[in-house]
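Q: Convert this sequence to structure tokens.
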Amino acid sequence: MPPVRSYKQRSSRELAPVKEEVLRLFAEAKAFHDAGKKEYARRRVTAARRRMMKVQLRVPELEGKYCRACNAYLEAGVNATTRLKNSIMIRRCNECGAVRRRPVGVPRRLKEKL
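A:
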């Protein structure tokens, strides 16, 4: 049986520079996307996602701003379609056709302790 891999818990002080770098990369991706250079924007999103995955960082304000399938920077009405159907937000990437669904406005159920 292989050994169980344990991940290092990082403090918010260690993650702060990484978060700043990720936000800077996303700002660059937005600038490139607005200028029509979508491949450069995709590269910035890929670099930012790599950095986030390396340190296991989640940035909630960036959720939904990129396609998880093709790493395209998404902007509603430009290269993404957002629909609301039965309390489910459906976001479709017009670059690759990937679809993401997430509940909206429905309270989350808490798991019961056994």
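The first helix runs from residue 12 to 34.
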